[in-house]
Amino acid sequence: MYRILLLGIFIILSGCGSLDKQSILVNAGDTKEQVLNIMGPPDDRQFQGKNEAWQFCKTGAGFGYHDYRIFWFFDGKVTGVNSYKSTRPGVSCVTDIKPINWEDAPDVTLEIRKR
């Protein structure tokens, strides 16, 4: 009984906190499938040509804020990650997801050629 109680508390507490624990496992060059395995399905997905942005959010990530991560992809590979927070009260963080500003996307090196 004691073990079950501790396991329950651990599961509840591991759900608390920010997206840091998950997003730290994502690396530049990872595929969309790898990000899905780590983060689960995105709360928002936008794309423009070969550029794609997935947003994830966590409600009640800390004391009075929602936590957000934007994963940037080019041609199906991670090129960068941005984060932001919202302190607007609300039950769901999805209502405060920002529209993607494509100028914020990380620069991408398409090809390096030696001469």
Give the SSE map.
Blueprint: H1 2-15, H2 20-23, H3 32-39, E1 44-48, E2 51-58, E3 66-74, E4 77-86
Outline the structure in words.
The chain is of the alpha+beta class. It is built from three helices and four strands. The chain has helices at 2-15, 20-23, 32-39; strands spanning 44-48, 51-58, 66-74, 77-86. It has a four-stranded antiparallel beta sheet with strand order 1-2-3-4, covered by helices on one side. A hairpin with a 2-residue loop joins β1 (44-48) and β2. The N and C termini lie far apart (69 Å).
Averaging pLDDT over every residue, what do you get? 82
Query: Whole-number radius of gyration?
Result: 17 Å
Number of strands: 4
| Parts with pLDDT < 50 across at least 5 consecutive residues | 5-17
Structural class: alpha+beta
Identify the overall geometry. Answer: elongated
Helix content: 10-25%
